[in-house]
Amino acid sequence: MSESPSHDVDRFARLTELLAEWQPLWRPMPFQHRRLPWAQAYPELAESLRALDDDECLRLQADPFTDCPLAEWLPVAELAALVELPELAAEGPDLPAQWAEQVGGRKWQQIEAFVPRMAAQPGTSLLEWCAGKGHLARTLSRHLDREVAGLEWQAALCHDGQALAERQGTQVRLAQQDVLAPGAARWLTADTQVAALHACGDLHGRLIELAAEQGSAVTLAPCCYHRTARTHYHPFSQCGRELAAAHGFSLSREDLAMAVQETVTAPRHVRRHRERANVWRLGFDALQRQVRGLDAYLPVPSLAYGRMPDSFEEFCRWAAERKGLVLPADVDWHAFEQEGQRRQAEVTRLELVRHLFRRPLEVWLVLDRQRRLEAAGFRVELGTFCDRELTPRNLMLRASR
Ligand SMILES: C[S@@+](CC[C@H](N)C(=O)[O-])C[C@H]1O[C@@H](n2cnc3c(N)ncnc32)[C@H](O)[C@@H]1O
């Protein structure tokens, strides 16, 4: 069970205070700064991070709160306590393994964890929000032996998902619907129960607002808080707006992205690819600072997986062209690549400060959503629905009026 609302109100207020107080440390991205703005005020903190070995660094990335050397300077224990949330209770037997057919392994495990926590009430109409191919809708329908509707924007996903549902004889109806369009409101009534697994920023934001208006029950695992049309975060709840204003706490879209920047579940080859890309980007950063004679970060567009050039030199030539930079003929490519490697090791260590505030920020964002629904008369439980190893986006809001 979730804790009492008053406890969560304290949690929300205290998290606001801590996030606001420590903004100067968690906001700057070490990637962009050769000298971090806070390093002068906390030289020993920066030094102790730089001195970490690779294993210790990896351990702290995965679990920033345990035996954390930053505790000497930062409120590690209090942050750890504030992000501690109960696992929401599940009901019913395990789902049959054959239902996983056509669903990716990890996605299936998430669905397996989500469905028994849906607490479907008799007589309600069930709806999956941003359903993709409706894997969750299909599973819910089989599990409860009930009709489930699913809303999905992409026609091809609706088509394929509908075919899949029919082949498996499930009572699922996928409708092509842009959930941000005015017409989406008609799907929600006081008798609707909505399931949303990993609906991104504005998509779940819209669900929260419509549910608050209509009184629909919601089981939501939010995701990608930064996928939003607004450049700055506008708290959902009055309480969130007041706390943020009182503590001078405002969040840009970039700050929101920090809440989901975790790689714990990325496959090893993806992590290796990302690491090499970062080394090259940092190597190029050193080069561009020298070429421009300006000690300032220059953002370079990202490259889709598989589009990365084969060598550091090619990457730099590509990046220079994108930024309209003329490179000299005698660049010491090896030296700049090495500098990229050195910076990568340093950045990874300094990033541990941000790691420490990542989950607190995410919990703060979810508490804000919880407050919004509570203010609309909902009873809301907040907790986890699966282990973080399965998905770091493992928070769930279970709300009904
Ligand atoms: C992150 S996926 C989640 C899908 C599924 N719930 C899952 O967990 O695998 C988000 C889905 O939302 C859909 N989507 C994006 N924008 C949408 C919109 N405006 N209206 C409806 N669906 C949308 C995407 O096409 C995609 O299928």
From TrEMBL:
It comes from the Bacteria. It comes from Halomonas daqiaonensis. GO terms for molecular function: methyltransferase activity. This is Methyltransferase domain-containing protein. Residues 109-228 form the Methyltransferase domain. Keywords: Methyltransferase, Transferase. One of its GO terms (biological process) is methylation. The keyword Signal does not apply. Pfam families: Methyltransf_32.
